[in-house]
Amino acid sequence: MNNNKIRKYARCIKKEENNLPADNSDDSEFSISGTAALGILGGTFLVGLVSGKLLCMLMKDR
Fold it and tell me: 3-state secondary structure string, the chain?
């Protein structure tokens, strides 16, 4: 008997459940501390401020 049927959609394959801890899995979200997040925001702000000042100084010279 032929078990091959013509299907419009492919069958879903069941995923095997891994018993790995959440810390070692690749699916975990990226998380940083609040201090690091504020440092990144502050650094971005300062870089934008300095580059804006430099652009203003260059535009005034013309």
Answer: CCCCCCCCCCCCCCCCCCCCCCCCCCCCCCCCCHHHHHHHHHHHHHHHHHHHHHHHHHHHHC
Task: Give the Cα separation of 29 and 18 in Å (integer).
Answer: 17
What are 42's two structure tokens?
A: 């502050």
Total number of residues shown for the chain: 62
Between CA 51 and CA 25 the distance in angstroms is 40
**Distances from the Cα of 11 to the Cαs of 2, 14, 15, in angstroms?**
17, 9, 12
pLDDT in tens, 25-45: 555 677 889 999 999 999 999
